[in-house]
Structures are given as structure tokens and as C-alpha cells.
Design brief:
Elements lengths: L2 H29 L4 E3 L1 H5 L8 E8 L5 E2 L5 E7 L4 E7 L11 E8 L5 E8 L8 H19 L17
Parallel strand pairs: 1-2, 5-7
Antiparallel strand pairs: 2-4, 2-6, 3-4, 4-5, 6-7
Length: about 170
């Protein structure tokens, strides 16, 4: 092999190796910062890693907001109308937060199945719904319709989502 050709080959291999190393390091650094979105149905089914940063979203269940009078701790339940997830948050909630409103919370699921939120975002107007929350609610409603369409008329068995009491 000619010395000039050998030198070019070495330079090209060093550039390729350096680029591959940079991409690998960037992917490794970004892997720890990914916050995946999970609807309440997946969280309740146990399909969520415990102790990892995730986002959960849905509607705040009516009558579920409990405020601690001695601190900023707020406990509430997020639902997608097929499953419910208890959420605990310490801090000041957005002005638009309320029962029956859409929320997306960032935080971690603990071993007891309670979502410990570090940030709570509320919808910003009466027509807006975060895309992840809207698709999760649509999926839950379509699954609910499919399960009720399989029942006989007048059947009120306890296995339907509407019959569960929370």
C-alpha cells in the first residue's frame, strides 16, 4: 500500500471512530433524561418502571383532591376512566388545576403504587388537551365501549369500568 493512501485510510478510520464514539456518548447521556408518558391504565396494570422518571396524565377525578392544611402537599387521583392512579404533589399547583380538569404530572412511581409528582401541568384553556392525554382518554373510552357492547342489554355485572367504585 502506498504511504499516502495508508495515511488517508488512517485519517478516515479515525474520523469514523470519533464520530461513532460521539454518537454513543450522546445516546448514553440522553437515555437517562427521557421521560416517557404513561396513561393511568398502564400504571395500574404495573407496566411502569418503579423509581424512574415518567409522565402520567389524565383527568383529575371529581372529589379526589385532598389538601394538607399544614403544608403544600396535595393528594389527588388521575383517571383515564378505565383506571385510577393516586398522585401526591408538594408545591404550588397551577391556577387552572381542578377536579375534572386534564393534567400531566412528571415524577416517579413508588413501590406502593402512588405517583410522587415533582411537577404538575394543567391544561391552559377550555379546549386544549395534551395530545398524550387525549389519546389515552380516547383509547380508554373505546375499550370501555367495546366491553359494554359485548354485554347483554340490562346486564350490570361488576366487571365493567362504570360499576367500579372509587
Amino acid at each position: 500500500m502506498h504511504p499516502v493512501r495508508k495515511q488517508r485510510l488512517i485519517v478516515v478510520l479515525l474520523i469514523i471512530t470519533g464520530s461513532a464514539l460521539a454518537v454513543a456518548l450522546a445516546a448514553y447521556a440522553l437515555r437517562a433524561n427521557i421521560n416517557l408518558f404513561y396513561p393511568p391504565a398502564e400504571i395500574a396494570a404495573g407496566n411502569v418502571p418503579v423509581g424512574k422518571n415518567i409522565r402520567a396524565g389524565g383527568m383529575v377525578l371529581e372529589g379526589s383532591v385532598k389538601r394538607d392544611p399544614n403544608s403544600l402537599q396535595v393528594d389527588f387521583v388521575v383517571t383515564d376512566y378505565s383506571a385510577n392512579v393516586p398522585v401526591t404533589y408538594v408545591g404550588i399547583l397551577p391556577d387552572l388545576f381542578g377536579e375534572g380538569q386534564g393534567v400531566v404530572a412528571s415524577g416517579q412511581l413508588n413501590a406502593q403504587g402512588v405517583f410522587i409528582a415533582t411537577e404538575v401541568l394543567a391544561k391552559h384553556d377550555e379546549n386544549y388537551m395534551p395530545p398524550e392525554v387525549q389519546s389515552a382518554l380516547d383509547d380508554a373510552k373505546s375499550a370501555s365501549k367495546q366491553s359494554t357492547s359485548k354485554q347483554k342489554p340490562g346486564d350490570t355485572s361488576a366487571d365493567t369500568p362504570a360499576a367500579s367504585s372509587y
